[in-house]
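Appendix B, Record 12. Input sequence as logged:
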Amino acid sequence: MVLFGEQSLRRATREFLVHYHRERNHQGLDNRLLFPGPAGTDLAAPIERRQRLGGMLNYYYRQAV
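Logged structural output:
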């Protein structure tokens, strides 16, 4: 990762923190999210991917019902 100045570093840090706290499961919590999204997921819905930091961090999810 190449950072160009303080603004670039701040953006990368912000993106990582959002991923860490909202999208990454935590082993200390039995692989649950810290802030789970809406309950009820359509298992027939296609799996979608949200990329952060140019694809270095990925979050896979299904749309809620």
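The mean pLDDT is 84.
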